[in-house]
Amino acid sequence: MAGYFDGIPEIRYEGPESGNEFAFRHYDADAVVMGKTLRDHLRFSVAWWHSFAWPGGDPFGGQTFERPWFGDDMDHARLKADEAFEMFRILGAPYFCWHDADIRPEGATLAESLSRLDEIIDHIGGRMEQTGVKCLWGTANLFSNRRFMAGAATNPDPEVFLWSAATVKGCLDATHRLNGENYVLWGGREGYETLLNTDLKREREQAGRFLSMVVDYKHRIGFGGTILIEPKPQEPTKHQYDYDVATVYGFLKDFGLENEVKLNIEQGHAILAGHSFEHELALAAALGVFGSIDMNKNDYQSGWDTDQFPTNVPEMMLAYYEVLKAGGFTTGGTNFDAKVRRQSLDPEDLILAHVGAMDCCAAGLKAAARMLEDGRLEAARAERYAGWDKAGDLLGSDLGALAERALSAGIDPQPRSGRQERLENLVNRYL
Questions:
Q1: Does the annotation mark 99 as catalytic?
Q2: 426-431 average pLDDT score
Q3: Is residue 33 one of the residues assigned to a domain?
Q4: Number of structural domains, the chain?
Q5: Gap between the Cα atoms of 51 and 340, Å rounded
Q6: Which residues pair with 184 in a beta bridge?
Q7: For residue 150, is it within any domain?
Q8: Domain boundary residue among 356, 374, 392?
Q9: Among residues 26, 50, 99, 176, which one is catalytic?
Q10: Which of 117, 334, 354, 399 is most buried, judged by most C-beta within 10 A?
Q11: In whole angstroms, what is the distance from residue 99 CA to residue 383 CA?
């Protein structure tokens, strides 16, 4: 019987003036914005790993959380699932995401691990039927165990490649059984720590072939979801092959997969790559590979991926502006790849972290919708490039013809203001 969250009420929308911390102030799931409900715009998902599997440790200290479902047997795995669905009910969360290692204990052999995955998927599938909660995506943990210390698909040991292939097949089969809407790869140790012991060309080819086999298998079993790659810079290795959106797009083009695979973009990873979140979203949309997002934030005074819940509405507004401009989510959604701080010990902390994050995202999306519907930002952008609409097909010409045209026209271009501060002031009006 679930009982960890006993006494915590179901979270309902009460509006901006509510003083009840166990209520939404901005996320009204049924409110319609730009023709869709907030529920359908945001497609919130709870991450199984941070909310239910993470023990509260960090690089400098061990476990701080004591959860009743912590244990290495199937009874604890089923209890964890039951408590997870209770939290989904309290929050009204429509989706969840998982790694295999989050939902089942490791077996003594690969076969036992896959058998345990099958068993817990049956249990989770039953809870999904009872509650209507859906699977946004599944994935394989190919990074925690010491066998993956040199990567999974990129490992110099072919037996690790084989192990990884079997694990991903099992996880993709499980995601298919749960009617998952996506399947995610990487986010692990697909990179290198030194070139002194690395054959970079070989490892890239291994990763590309592995991903191609995943795509082929998806079609073979009739999985209708989207295959996603999650860009991830530096952490945990010095160089990751999936560093940022541009790097992953080049990788996909190299292996002819740009029409088969989309990107799951994380706020914290974007920052670690030296970009803004909205930059990565805009670039993915421009390249036609935008898929889904992992929502969190980093502590900007720390140099690593702290995976905190989002609390900055202006950041969320700029992010969801790009999501809305891209046409919104199709199979993707907003997955909270975020964890409470290791001192936040109570069940209420876990619930309220999600409540605040859902409100933050809702407030940001509503502000982004106001900005997009108003149209002034897009009008200013269009005005800046208006000369190109009258210039004819310059890009289809050649350098000699362009030079002749410039000389014959006697042009003398003068700089025009980019109006950055005016546009920043405009953006702040929608908050």
A1: yes
A2: 96
A3: yes
A4: 2
A5: 8
A6: 228
A7: yes
A8: 374
A9: 99
A10: 334
A11: 47
Q: Is 299 annotated as a binding residue?
A: no
- Is 76 annotated for ligand binding? no
- Can you tell me the distance from the alpha carbon of 349 to that of 346, in angstroms, rounded to the nearest whole number? 5
pLDDT in tens, 66-106: 999 999 999 999 999 999 999 999 999 999 999 999 999 99
C-alpha closest to that of 337 among 303, 306, 378? 306
75 among annotated binding-site residues = no
- Same domain assignment for residues 284 and 387: no
Residue 402 within a domain:
yes
Percent of all residues in the chain with a pLDDT value above 70, rounded to a whole number: 100
194 and 49 share a domain? yes
- The reply to whether 291 and 354 lie within a common domain is yes
Catalytic option among 26, 28, 41, 102 = 102
Query: Which two tokens mark 412?
Result: 């003398």
Residue 353 pLDDT exceeds 60: yes
Identify whether 73 is a catalytic site residue. no
Question: Are 241 and 155 in a shared domain?
Answer: yes
The verdict on 158 and 26 lying in the same domain is: yes
Strands 239-240 and 191-192: antiparallel
**Whether residue 362 sits in one domain with residue 387:** no
Q: Which helix (H) or strand (E) holds 266?
A: strand 261-266
Same domain, yes or no: 270 and 143: yes
The answer to whether 279 is annotated as binding is no
- Whether the pLDDT of residue 307 is over 70: the answer is yes
| 305 annotated to bind ligand | yes
d(CA 326, CA 297): 22
* Residue 417 belongs to domain spanning: 379-428
Nearest to 153 by CA among 124, 178, 188: 188
Give pLDDT tens digits for 195-240: 999 999 999 999 999 999 999 999 999 999 999 999 999 878 889 9
Residue 100 annotated as binding site: no
392 and 366 assigned to the same domain: no
User: Helix, strand, or coil here: 233?
Assistant: coil
The pTM assigned to this predicted structure is 0.96
Last residue of a domain, one of 374, 391, 408: 374
Token digits for 85?
């669905």
Is position 4 within any domain? no
Q: Would you say 235 is a known binding-site residue? A: no
CATH number at residue 122: 3.20.20.150
CA dist., res. 336 & res. 333, Å (int): 10
